[in-house]
Design goal:
Strand 7 and strand 8 (about 105) form a beta hairpin. About 0% of the residues lie in helices and about 25% in strands. By secondary structure, it is an all-beta fold.
Length: about 120
């Protein structure tokens, strides 16, 4: 039997195959070079449409959000400036920010879009 290929680092699928110098996962379409050190995908935080976020970015809320203890919601289109990313957040809220009118809070990256 030939050498076993490593599982996909993105989805842990065991059905990886070689394509030139790259390894490819047929289940999630992730491609990687096994000879290079990889940046873990879990450390990269993306917004709802796939843009990579960084500390200090400005984002726009794309979904109305109810906030406990406040009579009004955070409305769609609210801009949030100077975000701080919190990788490996246990509760899934990976953005720490200050929302005008609401104060300091945490948001999920899946409900914001980066302002380009």
């Amino acid at each position: 039997m030939a050498d076993a290929l490593p599982a996909c680092p993105a989805c842990s699928s065991e059905y990886t195959y070689e394509m030139g110098a790259l390894l490819v996962c047929p289940e999630c379409a992730h491609e990687w070079n096994p000879d290079e050190d990889q940046i873990l995908d879990s450390s990269i935080i993306k917004d709802a449409v796939g843009n990579i976020l960084a500390d200090g970015d400005t984002v726009t809320v794309i979904k109305g959000l109810k906030v406990k203890g406040f009579p009004q919601d955070i409305k769609v289109g609210t801009k949030v400036r100077n975000i701080r990313l919190v990788p490996d957040a246990a509760n899934g809220h990976d953005i720490d920010c200050k929302v005008d009118g609401f104060g300091q809070m945490q948001l999920k990256s899946s409900v914001v879009k980066k302002v380009l």
